Input
Amino acid sequence: MAGTTTDLERQLAELLEQERFEPPEAFKATLRDNIAQGRALSGHDLARAEELHTALFQRVRQFFTRYDIVLLPVSQVLPFDVDLEYPTEINGVPMTDYLDWMRSAYLISATGCPALSVPAAFSPGGLPIGVQLVGPHHADFAVLQAGHAFEQATQVAARRPPGA
Output
């Protein structure tokens, strides 16, 4: 099945094994780790993941029978130095891998719901802070409308960060 996790793992594993990527260290460690994790999955693991994903999909569908739009943080951290692959700690809590620091975004991606990030504020140092608006499945236009309404109401885009 094109586009599945196993298909992506297979493609990346084949790329990793090509001679032009010898030694394997030509791939960054986090990507090598992801490939190894994908290779370690069994058919049973993938079937269980699909069962859990279906259950998540149904829970989210039920949730959105009561709510139209959800407003959530985009990220748990402010923008960080471009030379840093990912924050290894947030408020004293260690991040075990590069996915941990962006949990608030990838958890929404796993639901398949449409989401839109919009500017919401600036940190005292002038760094942008965003929120994401999330809607029910197939409600892309409603999410875009909510984003437009949010931007009109807050006028954040018209403001400049402190010190700018």
Summary: Helices lie at 5-17, 29-40, 43-63, 103-111, 140-154.
